[in-house]
Design brief:
86 residues, 6 helices
């Protein structure tokens, strides 16, 4: 049941982050929490905006995500909240 509720991209990012010691999972959550505002997100996590954009582009390509799509963003955000509250 958990796999059905959680967006597969989060599972993929978690595995990638663990294997490569990166922070893509956290970056995506920060981006979604800041309504996909790159400037606010970069400031909130203390990252240069250009570095953030590179990470976002990687996440979108690696996970085949369209972050312009409302339903995708909603599913991702609900998945984060679900994982935080389990």
């Amino acid at each position: 049941m958990k796999l059905e509720l959680c967006h597969p991209a989060l599972l993929k990012l978690t595995a990638y982050d663990e294997a490569h010691k990166t922070d893509h999972y956290v970056v995506l959550y920060a981006l979604l929490s800041n309504n996909c505002n790159q400037t606010k997100t970069a400031h909130a996590i203390g990252m240069h905006r250009n570095s953030l954009i590179r990470k976002i582009n990687f996440i979108q390509e690696y996970c085949d995500l369209d972050l312009e799509d409302y339903e995708t963003r909603l599913h991702l955000m609900l998945s984060y909240e679900y994982r935080e509250n389990e």
